[in-house]
Amino acid sequence: MKYLVTGGAGFVGSHLAQALVDAGHDVVVLDNLSTGHRAAVPEGARFVHADLSDADVTDRAVAAGVWDAVLHFAAVSLVAESMREPFLYLRRNFITSLNLIEACARHGVKRFVFPSTAALFGGEGQLPRIPAEARIEPGSPYGESKYLIERALVWADRICGMKSACLRYFNAAGADALGRLGEDHRPETHLIPLTIDAALGRRPGLKLFGNDYPTRDGTCVRDYVHVSDLADAHIRVMSQLDERSVTYNLGNGVGFSNLEVIQSVERVSGRKVPWEWAPRRGGDPAVLVADSLEICRETGWSPRFSRLDDIVETALRWRVDHPNGYGSC
Question: NAD-dependent epimerase/dehydratase domain: which residues (predicted)?
Fold first, then answer.
């Protein structure tokens, strides 16, 4: 099969591209490297340096191949930043995606896979787990931008016949079990790598944002799903697109609090994590945990890394072996 992976030099996109290469497929990675890393593009994948904000460049990239599917990971994705720069997020995520969707429809792409987000859901009153049919109520411009893209894909199906999968996943975490790929954001904002770096003495003490949420220990609860499990789900879901478009929530189905993440890192690393309380951040729901029963039932997917300590262990090994991220490669 031949696949185009946009944003394939980023965290989740690179793991998906690696999984496709490992399975023997022909993979082209398109990325502008604004947040991704050239060293994260798997050996065996062809790299195209391009920016989806340029509609003509996007059209030429799609026209250059006959794709069995396009998998679209390119996005800006920081919830807190989107609260400060709402129009930047709405513009960059939606317009670039619209350029790509339009090009795919124009050139006869039949299958489109889109990593959406749990940020579509407000979180409150949707315990214990959030199903895909839960009320859409984005708590941030980032979440809103992803929902706009989902709606564009609905119309691409109705009018152009392009089938799509929207995978609303929760907190991607961990690293490739063979140590080939890992998480390297500049700056890093995700809790697990930040906690690991604090334990390793590579950054100042950690700040936990809010201790008065209506949760078991007062801190936010999130569903952490291993990045390689996400890659597996994206591959499995493509068989569904021969007949229909689908939308799934995707996660472990188990929530871990911020304090529990700290405790896991301490157990796995054998080191203490320095941390302190900080005020709540805007746009952070108290609880986001996925109900993934539908994708499990319909595709046979299930997470291999279901324990938080196992997810943390792969992330820790990557950060120990790559103290400068992909700059160490």
Answer: 4-251
User: What region does 9 belong to: left with phi over 0, alpha with psi -120 to 50, or beta?
Assistant: alpha
Q: Measured between alpha carbons, how far is 213 from 227 in angstroms, rounded to an integer?
A: 27
Residue 258, token pair as written in the block: 């911020």
Angstrom distance (rounded) from CA 28 to CA 26: 7
Q: What is the CATH number of the domain that holds 168?
A: 3.40.50.720
What is the spatial distance between Cα 264 and Cα 176, in angstroms, rounded to a whole number?
19
Taking only the tens place, the pLDDT of each residue in 105-157 is 999 999 999 999 988 987 555 556 888 888 898 989 999 999 999 999 999 99
Nearest to 250 by CA among 184, 303, 287: 303
Task: Give how many domains the chain has, as a whole number.
Answer: 2
User: One-letter amino acid identity for 66?
Assistant: V
State residue 129's pLDDT score. Answer: 80
- Asked whether residue 99 is assigned to any structural domain, the reply reads yes
Active site (catalytic) residues: 142
pLDDT tens for 61-83 read: 999 999 999 999 999 988 889 99
pLDDT number for residue 127: 52
From CA 114, how far away is CA 164, in angstroms rounded?
A: 7
Across the chain, what does the average pLDDT equal?
94
User: Alpha-carbon distance 103 to 54, whole Å?
Assistant: 11
Q: Based on the domain organization, do 111 and 213 belong to the same domain?
A: no
| β-sheet bridge partners, residue 114 | 166
Q: 131, exposed or middle or buried, with CB in 10 Å at 0-12, 13-18, 19+?
A: middle
Closest CA to 154 of 175, 136, 142, 140: 136
Q: How does DSSP assign 118-183, residue by residue?
A: GGGS--TT--S-B-TTSPP--SSHHHHHHHHHHHHHHHHHHHH--EEEEEEE-EEE---TTSS---
pLDDT 10s digits, 158-182: 999 999 999 998 899 999 999 999 9
**What 3-state DSSP class applies to 3?**
strand
